Amino acid sequence: MKVSMKINGVEYERDVEPRRLLVHYIREDVGLTGTNVGCDTSSCGACTVLMDGKSVKSCTVLAVQAEGAEITTIEGLAEPDGTLHPLQRAFQECHGLQCGYCTPGMVMASLSLIKENPGLDERKVREGLEGNLCRCTGYHNIVKAVLQAADEMGVKA
């Protein structure tokens, strides 16, 4: 089947098997490898991207279901000149990562969380990121990073 979508502002059109997962389309067909495959069961969230502004686990979406959608991956957050998005910068400044495997999905889920939930506090961030697993950090610095970015983005109450 032919599928077309915009990924990080660039239009892509490819022929795909109807069963092709969006995560594999992004990584293998388009070549954007920042989106990670962690579990293939939607348990970890390492593959989280934004689809039409909402976070989705791209291992649960078929590429054909994303027909006509606007997809944003971790590669699409920084400015063209390399300036990091406030959330990326906050993860760096607050040491919200260790091995980094979960980081792309965690950042994308956090961005959606910030945009959809003004007035975030520690409890709301922890609850909002329950579907994204980190096996290294204990989440404290991730929560700190999300709250710092929300404040910088003018979303925190």
Instruction: Give the radius of gyration.
Output: 15 Å
Please report which band the strand proportion falls in: under 5%, 5-15%, 15-25%, 25-35%, 35-45% or over 45%.
5-15%
Average pLDDT reading: 95
Q: Name the overall outline.
A: globular
How many structurally independent domains?
2
Query: In CATH terms, what is the fold-level topology of the largest domain?
Result: Ubiquitin-like (UB roll)
List the uncertain runs.
Answer: none
Assign the CATH superfamily of the largest domain. Beta-grasp domain
CATH architecture of the largest domain: Roll
Sheet with the most strands?
5 strands, mixed
Number of strands: 5
Write down the CATH class of the largest domain: Alpha Beta
Organism: Ferrithrix thermotolerans DSM 19514
Keywords: 2Fe-2S, Iron, Iron-sulfur, Metal-binding, Oxidoreductase
Pathway: Alkaloid degradation; nicotine degradation
Protein name: Carbon-monoxide dehydrogenase small subunit
What does this structure look like?
- The protein is of the alpha+beta class and 157 residues long.
- It has 2 domains: 2-76, Roll (Ubiquitin-like (UB roll)); 86-152, [2Fe-2S]-binding domain (DNA polymerase, domain 1, Orthogonal Bundle).
- 32% of the residues lie in helices and 15% in strands.
- A hairpin with a 2-residue loop joins strand 1 (2-7) and strand 2.
